[in-house]
Automatic annotation (TrEMBL):
Compositionally biased residues, Basic and acidic residues: 434-447
Region Disordered, residue ranges: 28-49, 420-447
InterPro entries linked: 6-blade_b-propeller_TolB-like (IPR011042), Glc/Sorbosone_DH (IPR012938), Quinoprot_gluc/sorb_DH_b-prop (IPR011041), TAT_signal (IPR006311)
Protein name, entry field: PQQ-dependent sugar dehydrogenase
Glucose/Sorbosone dehydrogenase domain span: 90-437
Length: 456
C-alpha cells in the first residue's frame, strides 16, 4: 500500500486518532533529557516520573510461560511462507513494539517514530537529537555500504507493560554529548511533552551500537548495548562489567538495577546482566523464561547465545573466527549456534498459532544473509533431526543446549532487520534494504517494508 502523507503531531493531537500522538518533541535538543537535573544512575529516576511505573515480576503470569516446553521434533518447512505487505517506503525501519492495547509502533533509523494502521502509517515524531542518518531512495541502485549515519540513529522501542494507564514509550537512540557519539535510553510520556533519560552514556560509534529494547517475561526492561568500539581501541572496557559497552542490561522500568540482578563483583555496574558481547541486536526468551540473544561476530563468528546471569561471553578475546582466541579451553560462555554469514539482528521465540510449523522455534532476522533463520533449540540433541539444513554440534559450543537451523524466505525480502510476534499470534518483520547494503535486486520501489509472514 502507499503510505498517506506525513501527518504532523498538531493534527494528531487535534484529531485524537493515535494515543501515541503526544510523543511530540520527545527527543529534544536537551543533552540529557532531564532538564538539567542529575544524570540517571543505577538507582533509577522513578522519583521524577509522575506515574507509578512499578510492575510485578511474576514469571508464571507471563502469557507464554511454559516450564515444560519442548522443541519440535522435525525441521520447519523451508518454502511454505509468504509476506503480506502492511506498510512500505519506510526509511530503514529498525524495531517494532506492540502495546498491550494492540497499537503498533515502529522506529525508523533516520529518526522517526511511526504508527501503522490499516491504511498505512503516520509519522508521530521526528526527534531532533538523534544523530544524522540517511536512507537510500526506494529502488536505488547505489551500493553505498557507508551511508550517512552509519549504523546509529533511532533504534529500539518498547512500551511500558501497563500502557496506556502508564503512558510511557521507551526508545534507544544514538546522539552526541560533547561531540562524542553515545547511546541513550529515554522514556516518553505520550500524554505530554515530558521525557526522562533512563540510561545514558552507553558507548556509541558509527557502528556497533546494539540497540534492541524490550520488556521481558518478568516485566524487566532489557537493553542490548553494543561495544561502541569497532576499532577495538579500548578492549579492556568491553570486557569490564563496570562499563556499559558490550553488555546486556536488565532494568526496572525507571532504569534502576533490579535487586536480583547478578552480583558480578564490587566494581561491576549493577545494571549489567551479562558482558563480553560485541554487537547484540536481538533478545528473546524460551517459554521457561531463559533469555537468548543474537549478536554479530567479527568477520564471521555470528552467534546465538543462551544467557546465564553474570556470564562473560568472551568478546573481545574469544570468537569462532580468524584472529581471535577460540572458546575451547576457556571459561567463557559458549554459543549454542554460530555461523559466518547470518548478520543476525532482531529475534523472537515464536509461540503463535498463525504459523504452526514455526511454533516453538527461535526466529532470527538475517541482514547480509537476507533471510529469516529458524532455530530449533533443545537440551536433548537427539531431537534434532537430519532434515534441518544445519546442525550446530561443534565440541566447543554450549554443552547444555543443542541447536539446528533452517533458512527461510532467502532473498525474497532482502535484508531483514527484526521479527516480532503480534497479539494476534502473527509473525511480523521489517526490512532494512535502504541502508546501502542490500543486494540481489534490493531495494525495490516498495522498500523498506513492514510485513506479516504467513503460510502459503
Amino acid at each position: 500500500m502507499t503510505p498517506p502523507p506525513t501527518t504532523r503531531r498538531r493534527f494528531l493531537r487535534a484529531a485524537g486518532t493515535l494515543s501515541v500522538a503526544a510523543v511530540a518533541g520527545c527527543l529534544s535538543d536537551s543533552s540529557d533529557g532531564s532538564d538539567g537535573e542529575e544524570m540517571p544512575t543505577a538507582t533509577g529516576v522513578g522519583d521524577k516520573i509522575p506515574y507509578d511505573v512499578g510492575v510485578q515480576h511474576d514469571l508464571t503470569a507471563w502469557n507464554q510461560y511454559d516450564s515444560d516446553w519442548a522443541a519440535p521434533k522435525t525441521a520447519p518447512e523451508p518454502g511454505s511462507y509468504e509476506a503480506e505487505i502492511l506498510a512500505e517506503n519506510l526509511e530503514i525501519p529498525w524495531d517494532i513494539a506492540f502495546a498491550p492495547n494492540g497499537e503498533l509502533f515502529v522506529t525508523e533509523r533516520t529518526g522517526r517514530v511511526v504508527t501503522v494502521e490499516q491504511n498505512g502509517y503516520k509519522t508521530v515524531s521526528e526527534p531532533e537529537s538523534v544523530v544524522d542518518a540517511e536512507a537510500l531512495p526506494p529502488g536505488s541502485e547505489e551500493d553505498s555500504w557507508y551511508v550517512e549515519g552509519g549504523e546509529g540513529g533511532l533504534l529500539g522501542i518498547a512500551v511500558h507493560p501497563n500502557y496506556p494507564d502508564v503512558p510511557l514509550v521507551y526508545t534507544y537512540f544514538t546522539t552526541k554529548s560533547d561531540d562524542e557519539r553515545i547511546n541513550r535510553v529515554a522514556a516518553f510520556d505520550t500524554s505530554s511533552d515530558d521525557s526522562w533519560t533512563i540510561v545514558d552514556n552507553i558507548p556509541g560509534d558509527s557502528y556497533h551500537n546494539g540497540g534492541r529494547l524490550t520488556f521481558g517475561p518478568e516485566n524487566y526492561l532489557w537493553v542490548t548495548a553494543g561495544d561502541g568500539d569497532p576499532a577495538l581501541d579500548n578492549p579492556e572496557a568491553i570486557a569490564d562489567p563496570g562499563t556499559l559497552g558490550g553488555k546486556i542490561l536488565r532494568l526496572e522500568p525507571d532504569g534502576a538495577a533490579p535487586q536480583d540482578n547478578p552480583d558480578i563483583g564490587p566494581d561491576a555496574d549493577p545494571r549489567v546482566f551479562t558482558y563480553g558481547h560485541r554487537n547484540p541486536q536481538g533478545v528473546a526468551w524460551f517459554p521457561d523464561g531463559t533469555p537468548i540473544i543474537a549478536e554479530h561476530g567479527p568477520g564471521g563468528g555470528d552467534e546465538v547465545n543462551v544467557l546465564r546471569p553474570g556470564g562473560n561471553y568472551g568478546w573481545p578475546k574469544a570468537r569462532n573466527s580468524d584472529g581471535f582466541e577460540s572458546y575451547k579451553g576457556t571459561d567463557y560462555q559458549r554459543p549454542v549456534a554460530s555461523a559466518s554469514s547470518w548478520a543476525p539482528s532482531g529475534c523472537l521465540f515464536y509461540t503463535g498459532d498463525s504459523i504452526p510449523s514455526l511454533q516453538g522455534r527461535l526466529i532470527v532476522a538475517g541482514l547480509i544473509s537476507q533471510q529469516l533463520i529458524a532455530f530449533t533449540i533443545t537440551r536433548d540433541g537427539s531431537r534434532l533431526t537430519t532434515d534441518h539444513e544445519h546442525r550446530h554440534a561443534a565440541d566447543w559450543m554450549d554443552n547444555d543446549y543443542h541447536a539446528a537451523s533452517t533458512p527461510l524466505l532467502s532473498d525474497e525480502l532482502g535484508r531483514i532487520r527484526h521479527v516480532e510476534q503480534g497479539p494476534d499470534g502473527g509473525l511480523y518483520a521489517t526490512t532494512s534494504n535502504r541502508d546501502g547494503r542490500a543486494g540481489d535486486g534490493f531495494p525495490t520501489e516498495r522498500d523498506d517494508k513492514l510485513v506479516r509472514i504467513r503460510p502459503n
